[in-house]
Amino acid sequence: MGDGLIARTALLWALLACLGGCASLMSSAVEDLATDLSAAILENPDVDMVRDGAPAFLLLIDGLLKSSPDNPVLLSQAALLNSAYAGAFVTDGERARLMAAKGRALAERALCLERKSSCGVAVKPFEEFEQWTATLTKADVPLAYGLATAWAAWMQANSDDFNAIADLGKVKLLMSRVAELHESHDHGGPHLYLGVFETLVPPALGGRPEVGRFHFERALALAEGQYLLTQVMFAEQYARLVFDRALHDELLNEVLAAEVDAPELILLNAVAKQRAQSLLDSADAYF
User: Fold this and answer.
1) How far is it, in rounded angstroms, from Cα 181 to Cα 204?
2) Which residue has the higher pLDDT, 170 or 61?
């Protein structure tokens, strides 16, 4: 979905969130180190360096889960890290499917531990699933969003399986509920995902590009120009789908020209700028 860019960005957030979450589980002697490392990663524009370091965090979290298997925060971060890494960097299909399945299972377990009514909810009939989503509250948003993103990554890894793609309705419903409860979560992330979901296919195959455009524009408003991935996904998913070259180039040139003064987004925006340039370079061939 979105050429893995959402997964790649989720991975970066997972790394950072993991640092903060793991720090609270470690001794105070390493908390300062974790804080400094987190800041260094956030302010590091070298995406490849962060990518190459991700496997170490996967192993670290697996080790921590051995001693804290029922920690919802740790489980949710492990879910995000495994799912995002699989979607962003793993090219072997079988390995990607295994990691994405692990991520989804961890996300489901995290939500189940915090909310017993959530146990096994992913496999319930749609009507029961719909009733369950209606009971979610704002306090459930972080873990519900974590499940929705891990589920989306699992679908991406199994995109050749009709049974997996059939789950899109549930994932959209869950993400819609998250947006309803806290639309600004993760810099407007719920709307960004919903925009992608609605523009995966053209209208003839069930896509709803104008609904997707609404979500992209709402995500843009919530990000307030700070989160450049939003413009990139708007261009790649919507503008290319409807062949709007003017909008496509306008959004991507905004990204390349942007000088966002937000230290916590330096790395993420570096990813966005790389993708923006790649899309512009291929625009003549596409349009």
Assistant:
1) 31
2) 170
From residue 187, alpha-carbon distances to 10, 133, 198, 235 in Å are 12, 22, 19, 18
CA distances from 149 to 48, 84, 208, 281 (A): 23, 9, 20, 29
**Tokens describing residue 4:** 């893995």
Three-state DSSP at 166 gives coil
The pTM (predicted TM-score) of the whole model is 0.83
Span between the terminal Cα atoms of the chain, in Å: 20
Cβ distance 216 to 192 under 8 Å?
yes
Which H helix or E strand runs over 24?
helix 5-25
Identify the pLDDT of residue 1: 56
Q: Are 252 and 235 in contact (CB under 8 A)?
A: yes
Coil, helix or strand at residue 40: helix
- Dihedral angle computed from the Cα positions of residues 13, 91, 97 and 189, in that order, rounded to the nearest 10 degrees: 30
Secondary-structure percent of the chain, ordered helix, strand, coil, rounded to 5: 80, 0, 20
Please give the structure tokens belonging to residue 152.
Answer: 């989306």
Tokens of 84: 């995002």
Q: Which helix (H) or strand (E) holds 232?
A: helix 229-233
